[in-house]
Amino acid sequence: MTSERATTDPHPADKRPLLEIDHLSVDFRLESSVVHAVQDVSLHVHAGETLAVVGESGSGKSATALSVLRLNPSPPCVYTGGEIRFDGRDLLTLSEKELGRVRGRDIAMVFQDPMTCLDPLQRVGAQVAEVLRLHTGISRAEARKAALAALDEVGIPDPEVRYRQYPHELSGGLRQRVMIATALVTRPRVVIADEPTTALDVTVQRQILDLLVSLQDKHDMAVVLITHDLAVVAETADRVAVMNKGRVVETGEVLDVFDRPADAYTRRLLAATPRLEAA
Ligand SMILES: Nc1ncnc2c1ncn2[C@@H]1O[C@H](COP(=O)(O)OP(=O)(O)OP(=O)(O)O)[C@@H](O)[C@H]1O
User: Fold this and answer.
1) 102 partner at 20 to 30 Å CA-CA among 88, 96, 120, 279?
2) Where does the ABC transporter domain start and stop, copy by copy (predicted)?
3) Model-level ipTM above the cut of 0.90
4) How many whole angstroms from 38 Cα to the centroid of ligand 1?
């Protein structure tokens, strides 16, 4: 059973969450078995808020996150129940064409490995500009200008020079910044970041998280941060949902959950994160 805490809600009752996952269930139907990857999961996030989703490998974090834009491979993925409401509309019932307009424009994703998202054969600036042209239909010159501004905004030095480079010419940290620029150039209202810093070394991790937090502040975005790193959650998120075996076992304000975990699984996760002591 999910333990939901009674805390002072900073969001008035009339202000609906921007994104609401409501009793979502997702199966992967394999040849000889069925994996119940997500079971009756409910989550929500408001504008300007960061919700962290934590849990061990295989707990269903990514399957939940990918469901929002129906990005789980189908087959074998089947959405067996629930709703995912963005701005009041159920994303699970939209046509591919309608969902295509939401993807990347209203809701963007940032993944762990930029190389899976960036085209190795295209200059990075052109990739940022292309996303913008796809969603807004602005001219080439305007898109170039906006892409340069986006590279600058994510802290890429010499954006004019970097604009013309290919992904392999950039460091891992810079590539991640380019992916963030690509995700944010359309000014999405929700960003789902799935382990965005796991592949980076600790100093660069910090810089990328700081960047996400500052951009969120600036643009009042809702952020869903998928991570297995509780220290990152403590430093970055407002609320946390703890997943175990496809279910949310506990959710609440980060400080409440970390100070007084109600669920035995949350206590085990916290006990396995000594870094938190020093955070
Ligand atoms: N494409 C797929 N085909 C079959 N099973 C899948 C697929 N994707 C995920 N699963 C299964 O669904 C379950 C949940 O996986 P998911 O990737 O959501 O976990 P996770 O918490 O994100 O783990 P990690 O931190 O390792 O990414 C796991 O049992 C996984 O093996």
Assistant:
1) 120
2) 19-270
3) yes
4) 9
Q: Where are the beta strands (DSSP E) in 56-188?
A: 77-86, 89-90, 107-110
pLDDT, one tens digit for every residue, the chain (279 residues): 565 565 555 665 557 899 999 999 999 999 999 999 999 999 999 999 999 999 999 999 999 999 999 999 999 999 999 999 998 899 999 999 999 989 988 999 998 887 778 999 999 999 999 999 988 889 999 999 999 999 999 999 999 999 999 999 999 899 999 999 999 999 999 999 999 888 888 888 888 888 899 899 999 999 999 998 899 999 999 999 999 999 999 999 999 999 999 999 999 999 988 666 544
Rounded to two decimals, what is the model's pTM?
A: 0.91
The token pair that represents 128 in the structure block: 């940022």
Atom number, ligand 1, closest to the C-alpha of residue 38: 14
In single-letter form, the type of residue at position 237 comes to A
CB 231: neighbour CB atoms within 10 A? Answer: 16
Burial group, residue 130, by CB count within 10 angstroms (0-12, 13-18, 19+): middle
Residue nearest to atom 8 of ligand 1 (CA): 63
Point out the ligand 1 atom lying closest to the alpha carbon of residue 226.
22
Taking the C-alpha atoms of residue 230 and residue 201, their distance in angstroms, rounded to an integer, is 16
Atom 26 of ligand 1, residue of closest alpha carbon: 57
Q: In angstroms, what is the span from residue 63 Cα to ligand 1's centroid?
A: 6
Residue 103 DSSP one-character state: B
Q: Which residues line ligand 1 (CB under 6 A)?
A: 28, 30, 35, 37, 55, 57-63, 73, 76, 228
Atom of ligand 1 nearest to the CA of 72: 1
Distance between CA atoms of 244 and 266, rounded to whole angstroms? 9
